[in-house]
Structure to design on (186 residues):
């Protein structure tokens, strides 16, 4: 048993010596690299800076602007002093969008696209995080949709759009979803 303990102790001492030797070697290599590295001139500006992420921070280290790339995308986010995003510019594989938020992170406005690929602007009730107004394109042209955010889930109360013939249409609903359509022919 004593031979086993002595052998283990020898291995531990050798391991400590090897770690010390490796650490010393790394420090010497770093010192040589620093000494041999060309001094950067304050007038030199690189042509391109490449990174997977980039952050601008304030004097306290809080992130104010972040450029990063979530899976298959690219984002630029602007944060307030509390670290809450207030503006986001998103680049996705099939669309881009710009979103603004209040100081608490509630959505205010989003500029992007619809499921059919046309442009859209959405205005939110930030406190309730519900859509209030949507300006978007559809297959027949543009559409303005006003949404009642008082009702749970929010329901449209007014839509201005073009019909299948290209004529203007106004559709109105009450809070019980009873509706009426107004067209130029009526």
């Amino acid at each position: 048993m004593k031979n086993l303990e002595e052998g283990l102790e020898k291995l531990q001492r050798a391991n400590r010596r090897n770690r010390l030797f490796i650490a010393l070697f790394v420090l010497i290599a770093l010192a040589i690299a620093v000494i041999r590295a060309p001094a950067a001139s304050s007038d030199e500006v690189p042509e391109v800076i490449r990174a997977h992420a980039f952050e601008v921070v304030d004097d306290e280290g809080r992130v104010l602007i972040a450029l990063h790339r979530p899976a298959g995308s690219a984002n630029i986010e602007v944060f307030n002093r509390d670290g809450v995003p207030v503006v986001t510019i998103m680049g996705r594989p099939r669309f881009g969008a710009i979103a603004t938020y209040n100081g608490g992170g509630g959505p205010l406005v989003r500029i992007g696209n619809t499921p059919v690929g046309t442009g859209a602007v959405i205005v939110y009730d930030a406190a309730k995080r519900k859509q209030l107004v949507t300006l978007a394109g559809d297959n027949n042209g543009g559409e303005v949709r006003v949404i009642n955010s008082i009702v749970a889930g929010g329901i449209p109360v007014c839509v201005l759009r073009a019909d299948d013939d290209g004529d203007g249409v106004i559709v109105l609903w009450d809070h019980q979803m009873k509706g009426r359509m107004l067209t130029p022919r009526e």
